Amino acid sequence: MITLTKEDEPADLDGVTHLSIGASWDPTAGSSGGVLGKIRRKAGTDLDLIAIAMQGPDPVRIAGLDSLDPLGNGSLLHTGDNQTGHGDGDDETVTVEFERIPSNITSIVFVAAAYKRGSAFQRARNISFKVYDATGGSSQQVADIWPSLLTDDNACAVAKAMRVGTGWKLKVINETGKVKQGNEQSLMRFAVDK
Predict the structure, then answer these.
(1) How far, in Å, CA of 39 to CA of 33, rounded?
(2) Strand 2-3 to strand 140-145: parallel, antiparallel, or no bridges (unpaired)?
(3) What order do you get walking across the sheet with 107-113 strand by strand?
(4) Interatomic CA distance for residues 100 and 113, integer angstroms
């Protein structure tokens, strides 16, 4: 297992037909103790993993939020919204089947965000992203991406799958920034130029 960083060269995805990115986090009470801390931990926090399909510099489709199959052919699938971070394993996952991605899609940017009002990265602990090679029907974790927790931002551009000729490469971005909560335009603007 390796931990990918933004300093790494883009990884060649030759031979990878299905790639999955999973996001996981643990709910935390932060500095709250007592009853308020128990309530916050039980409620958890709602982070969102979102894949934005790009046509050149323009975002054209979003997988996540309320759209689980935005291309309509199963080539870019989101598992659905985990609103608490409770449970083992990945809380949200996006899977890409490269051979079926329409040719006009030049890249896919994976973003994690405290998108909904009232959610915050600061209410989550142990945020991590896992990269899986799901070629051949079984999913095998091949890498981790760990974002910095020293941020007041509410979005993290995790990685970008880029079409290069007839193949694909995966570049780690791991940059945080701010998006206006509840605003898809702000979220899409954040993914541009990543």
Answers:
(1) 10
(2) parallel
(3) 11-12, 167-177, 155-164, 107-113, 48-55, 58-63
(4) 27
Q: Indicate the length of the chain as a whole number.
A: 194
pTM of the model: 0.84
Q: CA dihedral in degrees (138, 194, 27, 33; nearest 10)?
A: 160
Query: Following DSSP, what letter does each residue of 163-194 receive, concatenated?
Result: EETTEEEEEEEEEEE---TT-HHHHHHHHTT-
The token pair that represents 120 in the structure block: 């915050």
Q: Using CB atoms within 10 A of its CB, is residue 56 exposed (0-12), middle (13-18) or buried (19+)?
A: exposed
Q: Name the 3-class secondary structure at 119.
A: coil
Closest among 168, 127, 147 to 10, alpha carbons compared? 168
Mode of pairing for the β-strands spanning 18-27 and 124-133: antiparallel
Between CA 41 and CA 28 the distance in angstroms is: 5
Q: Residue 63 is which amino acid?
A: A
Block residue for tokens 């880029």: 162
Contact 131, 21 (CB under 8 A): yes
- C-alpha angle with apex 94: 44 to 133, nearest 5 degrees? 120
Report the C-alpha dihedral over residues 1, 85, 151, 183, rounded to 10 degrees.
120
pLDDT digits (tens, 9 = 90+) for 55-106: 999 999 999 988 999 999 999 999 866 554 445 567 789 999 999 999 999 9
